[in-house]
Amino acid sequence: MFVDYAKINVKAGDGGNGVVAFRREKYVPMGGPAGGDGGRGGSIVIQADEGLSTLMDFKYRRHFKGERGKHGQGKNMHGAGGQDIIIRVPAGTVIKDDASEEVIADLTNHGQTVVVARGGRGGRGNARFATAANKAPSVAENGEPGEEKWIRLELKLLADIGLVGLPNAGKSTLIANVSAARPKIADYPFTTLVPNLGVVRLKNGESFVLADIPGLIAGAHQGAGLGHRFLRHIERTRVLIFVLDTAQTESQNVLKDYYTLRDELEKFSADLAAKPYLIAANKMDLPEARQNIAALQEEFADQLVMISAATGQGTEELMIKACQLLASLPQEETIAGDEVVLRKFEEEPPFIIEFINGVFEVSGKRIEKLVAMTNFSTDEGLERFQRIIAQMGLEEALRREGIKAGQTVKIKDLEFEYSE
Ligand SMILES: Nc1nc2c(ncn2[C@@H]2O[C@H](COP(=O)(O)OP(=O)(O)OP(=O)(O)O)[C@@H](O)[C@H]2O)c(=O)[nH]1
Ligand SMILES: [Mg+2]
Fold first, then answer.
1. Ligand 1 mutation pick, 173, 249, 288, max ligand atoms within 8 A of CB
2. 99-103, 219-223, 337-341 — which one is most confidently predicted on average?
3. Which of 10, 60, 127, 413 is in Cβ range 3.0-4.6 Å of 44 for a Cys bridge?
4. Ligand 1 centre and the CA of 292: distance in Å?
5. What is the pLDDT of residues 130-167, one digit of tens each?
6. Is 289 helix (H, G, I), strand (E, B) or coil?
7. At what angle do helices 254-268 and 287-300 cross, to 10 degrees?
8. Is 98 left (phi over 0), alpha (psi -120 to 50) or beta?
9. pTM of the entire predicted model
10. Measured from the CB, is residue 285 less than 6 Å from ligand 1?
11. Is the CB of 218 under 6 A from ligand 1?
């Protein structure tokens, strides 16, 4: 089964907690602080694998959870980091953030990776908080929660040349004639339901990848027929071949078919419609084809190649011409190595205050993270929390919102009473 779209949930591992511990030595009643840090949580990483060709696996598995970092221990022992989880996808997969629809990465080369959810930092143990003024701090941080989000995976096949045509024009017959691809061929429209790729090898040793997609009909851009769902698989191609059924009898004007196709491409994407192209006048073995060819010759001159995908007449010439056209185009910039293509982080305000049912509700990634990382069971943890929220300007902001002593402030699960 060919699946080219999936939505999955990724949750990186939380960081392990830092601990409060003191050295215990003979004859030393209270040694120095010795609480180790928690380990980092495992991240969720996506990697392109050219051995894969579909996103089918994600139909059955939608949730990926990273391992939590281990907690720190006494004697300054740090917790171990959680294992990263590596999710393999076919090369050509575009990864988008589901909420913002922003592209996180476009993995086109084998081995390219991107971190889609970062594991949480381990909390620091009390050994880290020792200062000249406080040599025996009893404060430690909890681990940072791992990132979590829904992401979309969209496969866009990687092919050099794409075949476009109405249903039944002979696209699949053509790819079967010139490559080792063996798609289904039949005398009815919409035989092809999923894209097929074939590698074309010319006698001179050159080769390229050809894509056959389901037939297009008028209204495809609005979802008619199999719709434009498959057009994205030829978005990455650099040359198009319009395959026309020259032997069709109901309309003498095979040109009309061409303009129907062009119209659909333009409505889908101007970039797609602007690609260099050739015209394959197919089914030339049939007598009706000879009556219709004149109109095409007049319109397309050199861009036209007469073929019979069924007998193989003209198909080699078509492939050579297509390969030459491909070679004449400027080389596209490719990014070398297994560097990640794109990754953006949004700037966010540290918190937002809302007044709901008499309660000041504070939200925001940074403040929620601080709450998750604070160990409120110690006085020092609490003091540190108060110091940081003062630095963030939360108290001032609450006063600006008109807070009075005794009113409730809520941050995630934490509720407290405000006092001056
Ligand atoms: N006589 C003749 N018949 C052809 C030729 N090429 C294709 N056909 C026939 O036309 C019919 C449709 O061919 P396909 O290759 O399945 O057409 P398609 O464009 O892939 O169609 P869809 O997958 O529905 O979009 C089949 O019966 C083929 O045998 C040709 O050159 N000559
Ligand atoms: Mg087909």
1. 173
2. 99-103
3. 10
4. 17
5. 888 888 888 999 999 999 999 999 998 888 999 999 99
6. helix
7. 50
8. alpha
9. 0.71
10. yes
11. no
